[in-house]
Amino acid sequence: MALIQTVAAWFGYAPRDPVDGNQNATRTVTKTAKPVTFDTAMTVTAVFASIRLLAETIASMPIDLYTKDKDGYLDTKADHDVMKLLRYKPNKRQNRIEFMEQLMLNLVSDGNAYVRITRVGDKNSRILSLDIINSSNMTVILKDDVLTYRHQVTSAFSRDFKESDIWHVKLFGNGIKGLSPLQHAAKAVAVADASDDKVTSLMRNGAKPTGAIMTKGNPNEEQRNTLRKELGDLVSGDETFMPVLPLDMKFEAISLTPSDIELLATRRFSLEEIARMFGVPSILINDSTQSSNWGSGISAIIEAFHKFNLRPYLERLELSMLTTLIPRKDWDNYQFEIDADAILRSSRKERVEMYNTEITSGQRTPNEVRRAEGWKPQEGGDELYMQLGFAPLNVVAKQSSLDQSKDTSNE
């Protein structure tokens, strides 16, 4: 079995364990409709919309750090120095929203996000700044079980960082680097980009097909050149051009029409492929062909999007922040929480019904509900309440006996 796995790894058919050296050398897709880079991929509207949806959605979610009690339950919001960065301004150039958008842009497209950690104070105990280094400028090197992050600042200058100086968030991969969605889905992105180029070419040319002038005779070279010059506008000129052909000539189109190459179907399929690549429901990037899903079905789509796509990102970020930005000795005392409730908020009517159930069943206090709605707490609203009309029969019987005894004693 080991021999089969080794042979499979040689041909790129199985994941391979990381070995000493540059970890950026990965197997790339070569047979594509056109070359795919980050910049060319972002010109495809479905790619841009999918990445923007993920980046902006997660960046808009509040980040909090909670302390844990002795039983491991969340207690109160922690007053920690790192939260002043993550909550407001991680570095001198970016606020929290801009920082998280750039981090997610790198993570979603490349599969890796790198953040330089600048520390100060006694034994570098305090984090002063968090600065994102774009993935294309970072190389991961494994040597003797020690990771080194190399930042290519310019073409002639690079700088190495220790593992403790870099906050590295990665998607699933070999444990050292995450797999790049754009790299491994290059074929789908290339087809979409090539389809857009074809549409652009057709529109620039007034949707005119290429073709040939058919004649019964055999014109010489000079006559052919004259015809090419005079009738060139037939396939590439202004849309108002009116050609007049000699009686024994006719124009024969030889290029495939958009319907021949099923251009619209190709673009439609490319949208679904790209949405599938990023795990985004196509309706959320304005796929109008799925418009029947809007209405009552959109809440189910958003809930599924949260469970199966956003939640893995959030869990990954929360654990990565804890294990990188908090000292190891304090891992059991703190927990990061990215609040995703905002995107799951139902209509006001449904929320009121839910809150009423939670209050009357003793799950929440009135002030907890008020805080969830962004309202100021009120005095006396921190008590848990429980309705007394629902109880076991033996308890009801005892209560009835007590009431009868009180009535008798009063008489």
Automatic annotation (TrEMBL):
It comes from the Bacteria. Transmembrane segments: none annotated. It holds the Pfam family Phage_portal. InterPro entries: Phage/GTA_portal, Portal_HK97. This is Portal protein. It comes from Psychrobacter piscatorii. The lineage of its organism: Bacteria, Pseudomonadati, Pseudomonadota, Gammaproteobacteria, Moraxellales.
